[in-house]
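Translate structure to sequence.
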């Protein structure tokens, strides 16, 4: 059974339609109005083997903040919904991803308890039309909406494009691992018998 979620969220700042299949093949159609952000979300889907359709109409005449943050909120909601009761999932996932001079560590616990630890330095304020400070805002929003523990750390590197892209790819790889089903697990992987 494929684990899917569809979310629609409309506010005065953004209108978002998202479809996610955790058991996909890495196909994606992304339209956020921010080219570099589209590229990052496509990288996340492709390397995590998630099918992702996302369309965002945001107040880009203000800036990209609401578009990026709200997309993170909705993606987190979709991950949580698609995981349902989390029966049989490995729960933990981690990946150390190299990309040219960059090395990124991503570690996830799908515990139901949100916690976010982010360490990165960006020499550039923008990559294309994307503000680099929004990377943290996006992953923070995903973390708290999904109810996951996420550690995302830059271990090495200087190029902002490479750092950000490696983060999105590492997040996809680690989430794929954490969300994957292990036939040895009965119910939830917890001594409490449930994952919040």
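Result:
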């Amino acid at each position: 059974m494929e684990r899917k979620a569809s979310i629609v969220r409309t506010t005065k700042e953004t209108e978002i339609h998202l479809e996610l299949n955790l058991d996909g093949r890495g196909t994606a159609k992304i339209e956020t109005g921010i080219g570099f952000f589209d590229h990052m979300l496509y990288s996340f889907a492709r390397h995590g083997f998630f099918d992702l359709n996302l369309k965002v109409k945001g107040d880009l005449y203000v800036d990209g903040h609401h578009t990026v943050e709200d997309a993170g909120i909705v993606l987190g909601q979709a991950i949580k919904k698609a995981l349902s009761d989390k029966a049989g999932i490995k729960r933990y996932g981690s990946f150390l991803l190299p990309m040219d001079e960059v090395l990124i560590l991503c570690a996830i616990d799908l515990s139901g308890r949100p916690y976010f630890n982010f360490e990165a330095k960006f020499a550039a304020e923008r990559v294309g039309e994307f503000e680099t400070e929004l990377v943290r805002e996006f992953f923070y929003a995903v973390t708290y909406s999904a109810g996951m523990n996420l550690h995302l750390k830059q271990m090495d590197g200087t190029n902002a494009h490479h750092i950000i892209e490696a983060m999105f790819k590492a997040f996809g790889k680690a989430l794929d691992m954490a969300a994957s089903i292990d036939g040895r697990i009965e119910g939830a992987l917890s001594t409490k018998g449930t994952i919040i």
